[in-house]
Specification:
Blueprint lengths: L8 H14 L4 H6 L7 E5 L6 H17 L3 E5 L6 H10 L6 E6 H10 L9 E8 L1 E8 L7 H8 L4 E5 L5 H13 L3 E5 L3 H9 L5 E5 H7 L4 E7 L19 H5 L7 E2 L1 E6 H6 L1 H15 L2 H9 L7 E4 L1 H17 L1 H5 L4
Parallel strand pairs: 1-2, 1-3, 6-7, 6-8
Antiparallel strand pairs: 3-11, 4-11, 4-12, 5-8, 5-9, 5-10
């Protein structure tokens, strides 16, 4: 299994000693003195106007109050996020003035399908912003009223399943259900959440799989969620207006799947942290303040995203998630690539 780097205590100590030797001002002030003195650029490996864009703007709109600078997003769509990562790792200066805001789940699975040109040890995620569980959903007009209806039909014929991209936690979820039950599913990537929802609503797809935030935002009058790939269904009736809320896969089928979630997070080059641990600490200290700020909750709710999905995760939590999603991705790699094992 690939090992993912996370900053060590030594990096912080090294930065602290260096700062303390330069000045007699308090430790925290010495660390952040002079940083930042210009805007911070954020590389986003998706198109402008999508969920990542809205999430990023809501967060940085509050973060700038504490870090005392503005954030400049730059969007690099293409190749399921690969273009953005390649650009960031290949061209961004390693000075802590350049960050990446990615979706850990789909993008780590992208590396399972095809290795990047850079080493995965050269960058790491250090601040998770949200946890958005994958769901199985149908049109409100669909004859399927439960996941059992889907399974029964999937044993008779192959069902077409719309997904935003093949290498996605939601895609793995429905593949795992098919493996467990014997139902047959044909994944069809429709390039993004909007197109996936449209494919389900029009009936072109029998069902779809996406993060819960995209489905709940559209509303239960249009879509109905039938299954959740998480420890519990946190959104309840906002995902389904049926008498029984969508169950979790593990509870319903007795499986032992890890949470199959999208998790947006800030990432940074390892060498930037090694060279500037004081700047990295300043970012970490201020990023935590955003989650407790009432303005952030207002900003999230304004985007119509579920507040329940907003959950902070540090570098260690991001590392654990990356390893978990990579492991299950390796298991289903042949099905994500269309190749037989």
């Amino acid at each position: 299994m690939t090992k993912f780097w996370a900053p060590s205590r030594r990096s912080f100590v090294k930065g602290g000693l260096a700062a303390a030797g330069l000045s007699a001002v308090p430790f925290s002030s010495a660390l952040s003195a002079g940083f930042p003195d210009r805007n911070i650029k954020v590389y986003v490996p998706t198109r402008e106007g999508g969920g990542a864009d809205r999430n990023l703007r809501a967060f940085t709109g509050v973060w700038k109050k504490y870090l005392k600078t503005n954030f400049e997003p730059s969007f690099y769509p293409g190749a399921a996020g690969r273009v953005g990562y390649e650009t960031y790792m290949g061209k961004a200066p390693a000075d802590c003035y350049n960050l990446l805001f990615g979706n850990m789940g789909p993008e780590m699975l992208n590396w399972v399908v095809k290795k990047p040109s850079f080493s995965l040890d050269d960058y790491f995620y250090f601040a998770r912003v949200d946890v958005d569980p994958s769901v199985v959903f149908v049109s409100a007009k669909s004859p399927f009223r439960s996941i059992d209806d889907v399974i029964a039909e999937g044993k008779k014929r192959t069902l077409n399943v719309g997904t935003s991209r093949l290498a996605h936690p939601a895609s793995i979820g429905i593949l795992a259900v098919g493996e467990h039950t014997g139902a047959k599913f044909n994944l069809i990537p429709l390039s993004g959440g909007k197109n996936t929802i449209a494919g389900v609503v029009t009936g072109e797809m029998d069902l779809g799989v996406l993060p819960s935030g995209s489905v709940s935002k559209k509303g239960v009058k249009v879509l109905r969620s039938l299954l959740v790939f998480d420890e519990k269904n946190r959104l309840g009736a906002r995902l389904s207006s049926f008498d029984v809320n969508a169950p979790t896969a593990n509870d319903h089928f007795g499986t032992k799947l890890p949470p199959l979630v999208s998790a947006r997070a800030f990432a940074i080059q390892k060498r930037a942290v090694d060279a500037h641990p004081d700047r990295y600490k300043a970012m970490n200290d201020t990023i935590l303040k955003v989650f407790g700020d009432p303005d952030y909750k207002k900003a999230v709710l304004k985007t119509k995203a579920p507040w329940e999905n907003i959950r902070y995760g540090d570098a260690a939590a991001c590392k654990t998630y990356a390893e978990s999603i990579t492991a299950i991705g390796e298991r289903f790699k042949p099905l994500m690539t269309g190749k037989k094992s």
